[in-house]
Amino acid sequence: MNEYITLSLILFTIGAVGVLVRRNAIIVFMCIELMLNATNLAFVSFSRQHGNLDGQVAAFFVMVVAAAEVVVGLSIIVSIYRARRTTSVDDASLLKS
Amino acid sequence: MFDLMWLLIAIPLASGALLLIWGKESDRFGHLIGTAASAASFVLGVVLFVRLMGEDAGHRSQAVSLFTWIDTGTFHVEMSFVLDQLSGLFVLLITGVGTLIHVYSIGYMGHDERRRRFFAYLNIFVAAMLTLVLAGDYLVLFLGWEGVGLASYLLIGFWQHKPSAAAAAKKAFVVNRVGDIGMALAIMLMFAQFGTSAIAAVDAAAPGAGDSVTTALGLLLLLGACGKSAQVPLQSWLLDAMEGPTPVSALIHAATMVTAGVYLVVRSNAIFDASEVARTAVIVVGLVTLLAGAWIGCAKDDIKKALAGSTMSQIGYMMLAAGLGPAGYAFAVFHLITHGFFKANMFLGAGSVMHGMDDDVEMRHYGGLRTMMPITFATFGLGYLAIIGVPPFAGFWSKDKIIEAAFGENLWVGLGALLGAGVTAFYMTRLMILTFLSQKRWRDDVHPHESPRVMTWPLIGLAALSAVGGILLLGDWITEWLEPVVGHAEHHELAVPAIVLTIIITAVVLLGVVAAVVFYRREPIAAETPADSSVSIFARAGRHELYGNEVNETLVVRPTRHLTRFLVWLDGMGIDGFVTGLADRLGDTSQLLRKPQTGYVRSYALTMFGGVAVVVLCLLAVTLA
Q: Does A9 touch chain B (CB under 8 A)?
């Protein structure tokens, strides 16, 4: 059981560090997905351990939300790329004049 | 019939409002409407006065209450008017002299493009002045009191494009406010003490009130009277008020408004009779002003300012008489009326001279005008004879009576009044010599000419009144007429017979005339005012209006300015400092908070992770503990 949780923690940490250190928006996005999936793994593992379906249901919700998020996020990235010819998140800092 | 007395006020008021509202279309005939309104008021005044004379002596005080003005709790004020022997005389003086001055102004203001507005203001003045004298309640009187102040302000500053006129108007208004504080406090005190401000009720209650109450009331009313009547120490505005058009100086600042203070004292005779201190204060104020005004009149080279000094001085006589109690009230009113005639006459005469001299007011630029302006000279001459008190002209009778009454009160007061008569003769003779006699001193491009008939007829009318005004005293008519209002006078026996005193007064007057003739006939008169350094200290003080402005500046204006500066500083440092300081600190805090807003998504994400980590740690801490 602990192995699943450990894997989940490792995946989550990789995702989190990736979000913080990488500049490429696509990579950042992938890291976010990685964190979501790490969470899903944790949900499913706990669900198995406790012997009820709550965690599984939550995992499905996360997947649905993640799918929607991917659609919105990718379209934002694509439109930013079209407008600015870059996918670096540091270049999209126009709100700070 | 007496119910119609409100029309006296309503007609000129409506006319004034009409002229102001109607606008430019009425420019062509506005002055005629204004004059007609004043004349209508005069005719109505005469009719009412004749009716009043027809009543029994006991029924000559006719009161009318139009409506309840204020009714809150125990405070009750009626919009009431009283036509009695005293206000009747005033109505005739105001509307009569007022109408003549309206007629005169048609000519005098003929070339002024704002003539219609001028007549509207004159009408409003007449309405306010009538409200003042007809009022049956001190609060209604105060309404008229402020109304004439407003009209005076508007008319002094009528030529508002001149900074000096605008400043003079403001000065008159501000100085009058000081007096008005006295009036307002007096009315409040009446209400606090007697529960009413109706004149009749106050008159009835005053004799029974305590000495301190009547003294306070008397002194407060005197303060109000000093402001309105330009008495020392509130005299400084009157000479500056000569910036207004000359008909205004004649009507407001000579014949009627400035005498309102005397009216107030006479009207409040019950209060002054009850307080010896207040009466003495009135006498002192009157005596000081009568000498100060005469002094100033001797030194001024501006014809209107010389006449203004003379007005101050003559009002001082009236105040003095009013302070003498029942022995003097009637003579104060008598002198007020004759002064209204001859001073309005002379001011209009001065206006006529200025009209012919391209609006030059400097007497040293005149000289020898008697042949150029025969009618003005003749009418002015009658006014001159009247004011210095040559028998049998109007001023002789009234001034003689006042000086006689002053001697009855106190030897020194009498001597002061007698000295004033001599000085009056001196400065008026000086004015006559400089203006009409002596050799010509005007420049070659000035062409003196007689004024048009619309201006000379009012002069002739007023000159005739100046000549025969003394008729009011015939058979002691005026003292008997006013007796029900002002009370019966005990007759004082003087140390010398009255006829001897009259001869002494006339001799002093002649002495003044001779002194002026000797002084100003001796050498050619300079066409320019001699420098301050070359004249005596007396002339210098007179020219500077006895340093009244300087005294005000030092004692009032400058300390007030310092106080204001201190308050502004306090406001800036204390209140503003606190508020702006608070805002500044908030700004600084915002500056600090601005730093983390880098615009980099990664740093925001780091913050979020940090936050989540803190929350998780807290949760752990709580669950484990």
A: no
Rg (CA), chain B: 31
Q: Please, which residues bridge with residue B77 across strands?
A: B70
Provide the percentage of residues in chain A whose pLDDT is more than 70. 96
Query: pTM of this prediction?
Result: 0.81
Contact A16 B598 (CB under 8 A): no
Phi-psi region of B67 (alpha: psi -120 to 50; beta: other; left: phi over 0): beta
Q: Which residues pair with B292 in a beta bridge?
A: none
Over 90: is that where the pLDDT of B496 sits?
A: no
DSSP 8-state code for residue B583: H
Interface contact flag, B602 A92, Cβ < 8 Å: no
Mean pLDDT on B400-418: 91
Question: Which of A16, A21, A89 lies closest to B601 in CB terms?
Answer: A89
Task: Yes or no: say if B309 and B302 are a contact pair by the CB < 8 Å rule.
Answer: no
Question: Taking the CB of residue B601, how many other CB atoms lie within 10 A of it?
Answer: 17
> With contacts defined as CB-CB under 8 Å, which chain B residues touch A28?
601
- CA atoms of B362 and B374, how far apart (whole Å): 20
Q: Which residues of B touch A94 (CB under 8 A)?
A: 599
Q: Which residues of A touch B602 (CB under 8 A)?
A: 19-21, 23, 89-90
Q: Round to whole Å and give the CA distance between B151 and B252.
A: 9
Mean pLDDT of chain B: 91
CB distance A19 to B610 below 8 Å? no
Return the H-helix or E-strand segment holding A31. helix A25-50
ipTM of the complex: 0.80
At residue B23, the 3 state secondary structure works out as coil
- Are the beta carbons of B472 and B337 closer than 8 angstroms? yes
